[in-house]
Amino acid sequence: MSSQHTLVRWIADRARAIPEAVAIDDRSGLTTYAELYARSRATAVALSAAGYGRGDRILTLTGNSTDHIVLFFACADLGIALIPLNWRLTPVEIAHQVEQSDPHLVVVEDDYADLGEASRARLETPPPWMTFADLTTPPARTSDEPPLPGPAEDDDVILVLFTSGSSGLPKAAQLTQANCFWNNLSFSRTIPMTDNDVVLTVLPQFHSGGWNVQTLLAFWVGATLVLERQFDAARILHLIEDRGVTTLMGVPTTYQLLADHPDFDDTDLTSLGTVVVGGGPMPVPLLRTWHARDVELCQGYGLTEASPNVLCLPARYATTHIGSAGKPYPYVDCAVADPATGEILEGAATGELLVGGPGVFPGYFRDDEATARVFRDGWLLTGDLVERDENGFYTIVDRIKDMYISGGENVSPVEVEATLSLHEAVQAVAVIGIPDDRWGEVGKAFVVCREESGTSEDDLRAYCAERLAKFKVPKSIEFVAQLPYNSMNKIRRFSLRDAEKEKTEQPTGDT
């Protein structure tokens, strides 16, 4: 197979055409396209000399950084898969994901050295371990099985990203170089970008959106990437004005926090063209706030398994199709199926969203069973209930899989329930997502305690905080006498959600 879709070509072409142009602007300084390609090539040479090659896996624990981007393109050059882990996780969770993904090498940023060591200590046989500072002299490859022969190919995996699902524990979704190529091509056909753009990236690089929504496209076209390690509303507003940022991507919480900041009204936003919203629908009042500042908002829908871009509502429809996720991107196919029968529905319809096209992933790493569950007749089953109108606009109705999104992070209730159920005081537990003004949704746990347990809400939240990332810890816990079950002894989460909705809709104040 030819290698016309391998991604290192993007920065190689830019380094030849515009070597002096700034590729990355971050707190460490400026990196030109010539420097970015030279560093990535040197890293690839060092990794190859140490025995690493096509089909291998390199796991990282790092914040957003130029070093991480250099390693990404070195991996793309050699046909190696990069596995960026979520630095918000606990050592228990990280150690599990290291074991699950079986990397040939682990690279840890200095800022996360303590977290890395705590995770490494939990591994019975840790893989070779190193820091980014030592990438020029990586440790020798230790695996007995040699790398695959030949240069990188289109179907080689470039990213392995952990994503939560209805089964509870995160699964390792694989994205190929061709997946990323087509995803970025389709994005560019909807929201054009040129070498005159200044792209602000703040989404973490353990998310598909941290790479495949604007970041990689910026390198393809020769734009400048302003790279931030974490979200800080005051700094983001300063950068928009100071760097002349033309586009950025965030979740609704991102834009809410920016709009709520005291500097928002006085910040010059005139450089902004179209900004991208993902991770959940944009509230109407927030849309109006940004529209009042003459900023165009492009909303959409995606999932990691689709690289992630699926649906897009261009800015021209933002006020006429409020609540809609739009239509499929170019090179993306969508269908609606009856959730009960799997029958494909035509025209205006309500059902499960199915996705096809070259951006759809090949499957989960070493999990054929989970992969088989998300495919049917060549379609990716999203588990999301949608409405499609007569004009082909899609609206996301609900997540069939019961997941909720907190501040742009997918949370699986099953995973949180599994953790709480290990507490000696917990007899039964159910977790749902409830609305939250700041984070979109947060978790609420309903707990049935054992007799005379003596536990409290603070006790259980502290227990979770030791074992789960902060965004997974339930914001509130309600102690109940019993949980609602169906005839199959499965918890009826919809009953809990309906009861919570009734509480919020009850009138307040004096009677």
TrEMBL record:
Pfam family name, one: AMP-binding
Domain (AMP-dependent synthetase/ligase): residue spans on this chain: 13-365
AMP-binding enzyme C-terminal domain: residues covered: 415-486
Name by which UniProt lists this protein: AMP-binding protein
